[in-house]
Each structure stands twice: as C-alpha cells, then as structure tokens.
Amino acid sequence: MPLNRLKQVPLPQNMDEKVLRAISEYLVPKKYTKNDIIIREKPLEMMIFIVEGCVIIEKTDFPSTLKRRAGEVYGEKLLSWPAWTSFPTLPIATESVRTDDDVEALVLMVTDMQEIGWKLRRYFSSMKITRLTDMSGRF
C-alpha cells in the first residue's frame, strides 16, 4: 500500500521502481492529535503522507494558510534531495505543519532518505531533476 501511494506523488518521471520500493520500506505509520505541530520552519526532518485527517500549513511571514487532507503529502522535496545536494546539507521546511484534527500519516524521516540516497547514490547522481517544492502535495 505505501508503494502505491508513493507512486501517486508528483515525482520526476524518471524515478525508478527500485527507488520507490526502497522509500516505501521506510515509511512508518504515525498518529497525531489535534493541534500537534508535526513540522517546524527549520531543516526538514520528515516527509508525511496524510492517510486520514487534515493538516494546516502556515508560513510565519505570510498571513494565509493552506490545508492538506487525506491523500496529500508534505515534504516531498526529500524525494529529490539526494539528486541535488551533497549530504549532510538538509532541505529547509519553509512552513510549519500542524494538525487541524486527528491525523494518521505515513512518515519518511530525513535520516532514512539519506540512507536510501547513499545506497542508491549512483542512481540519484545520474538523475537530471530540479528541486521539488512542497506546493504540489497530492498522492
């Protein structure tokens, strides 16, 4: 099931099945309660696939908020991170993410993506992709 959901995230078209399978093996189910802060504006520590519930994405210097619901994702820039940087430079979360209600999510930690990147470094270094932003969001 995580692999099927991962295949629905807007990814570079040349991301191969081997990488997607490796990523799906690291996805961990987590539950959060209303108003939990999942991600803060700082180096990005995780990527979340929202299975149930809704999260609010807030920028401290921007007055409006965005919502992501079940079937959406935040932190997808971790998927392209091994291709556009050298470790240990981490991508930055430009927003904070908090729960609007109870949330169930699949979580990929940055340390797991780093391990995947090292294992499959040859693949990532040959990719010609641009950095992903967190604004697409659907999986």
From TrEMBL:
<dbReference type="InterPro" id="IPR000595">
    <property type="entry name" value="cNMP-bd_dom"/>
</dbReference>
<dbReference type="GO" id="GO:0034220">
    <property type="term" value="P:monoatomic ion transmembrane transport"/>
</dbReference>
<keyword id="KW-0406">Ion transport</keyword>
<dbReference type="InterPro" id="IPR014710">
    <property type="entry name" value="RmlC-like_jellyroll"/>
</dbReference>
<keyword id="KW-0407">Ion channel</keyword>
<dbReference type="InterPro" id="IPR018490">
    <property type="entry name" value="cNMP-bd_dom_sf"/>
</dbReference>
<protein>
    <recommendedName>
        <fullName>Cyclic nucleotide-binding domain-containing protein</fullName>
    </recommendedName>
</protein>
<keyword id="KW-0813">Transport</keyword>
<dbReference type="GO" id="GO:0016020">
    <property type="term" value="C:membrane"/>
</dbReference>
<keyword id="KW-1071">Ligand-gated ion channel</keyword>
